[in-house]
Write a structure and sequence with these properties.
Blueprint (H helix, E strand, L loop, with lengths): L20 E6 L4 H13 L4 E5 L8 H7 L3 H5 L2 E3 L2 H5 L4 E5 L10 E2 L5 H6 L3 E5 L8 H5 L3 E3 L11 H13 L1 H4 L13 H17 L8 H15 L3 H18 L12
Helix pairs in contact: 1-2, 1-7, 9-10, 9-11
């Protein structure tokens, strides 16, 4: 292809801050889609591929063939049994979905998340199953949701979605004059999930709701706390409060000296 004489030179891949990005494919069904997605990642300079509960042979010939020069990404992909395992070291998790949910954080276009992406240190971008996407529970475990603007027909090939979202995210290096300061102490996903499990247990313990409604209520609480992008110390503060509430709920008396023994 002949380039215009006035076209700006491309930014060398080495200058793009893509080391903070991880791509997580949840339960992919077709080996070719894994390979194509890896190729899209390599195009954008992203090399950390994580695959959750694959329904096919990740190293099948079709996957390696479709990856072209990104074969190493496929061969070195981290295979995880759960989404929690794949994102436990990440402090910002973005799920992809074209659907809307009243009890989840509203979906935004990729470009609208650039400043948040680069304010975080370790970002996971999560893509769902080819035929059904991510479940409501999986999306609830994401701190942000992204949707690609399309016409009425919104179904995209997995590799297309990976390429478009990564392209939009790395544009922050070129188009955001003053990015937000990078947050060094955002709570990792593993810590947040532990706090949510503790809150759910407390809600049931004090009878605030019943087991049938608790998952919906937890999605609403996740929506609040994930939007706040809590730091590790803040999560520990909440967990201390909830532990004290649980202790009192068991019939113990307050002890301002801090000794529960």
């Amino acid at each position: 292809m002949v380039k215009s004489m006035t076209e700006a030179p491309p930014v060398p891949p080495s200058t793009l801050p893509t080391t903070a990005l991880r791509v997580v494919l949840v339960s992919p069904k077709e080996p070719g889609n894994i390979g194509s997605s890896a190729r899209a990642m390599l195009n954008m300079g992203v090399s950390d591929l994580r695959i959750v509960a694959p329904r096919c042979d990740v190293l099948a010939p079709e996957a390696l063939y479709m990856s072209v020069h990104a074969r190493a990404l496929v061969e070195n992909a981290q295979i995880c049994s759960t989404l929690e395992q794949a994102t436990q070291d990440c402090d910002f998790v973005v799920g992809t979905s074209a659907r809307e949910y009243s009890d989840l954080i509203p979906a935004r276009y990729p470009g609208e998340l650039r400043t948040q992406i680069w304010a975080a240190r370790n970002v996971a971008v999560v893509f769902g199953r080819e035929e059904s996407g991510l479940t409501t529970e999986e999306l609830a475990r994401c701190q942000a949701r992204v949707r690609i603007p399309t016409a009425e027909y919104s179904s995209l090939n997995l590799a297309q979605a990976v390429l478009i979202v990564l392209y939009e995210f790395i544009q922050s290096q070129r188009t955001t004059p003053t990015p937000l300061p990078r947050k060094e102490n955002l709570a990792p996903r593993e810590q947040l999930e532990g706090s949510y499990a503790q809150l759910k247990s407390l809600i049931l313990e004090i009878g605030y709701t019943d087991p049938r409604r608790v998952d919906h209520m937890m999605r609403l609480y996740r929506k609040i706390f994930d939007r706040a992008q809590l730091e590790a110390d803040e999560v520990r503060m909440f967990r201390g409060l909830w532990a004290q509430m649980s202790w009192i709920a068991k019939g113990n008396k307050p002890n301002l000296g801090g000794d529960k023994g």
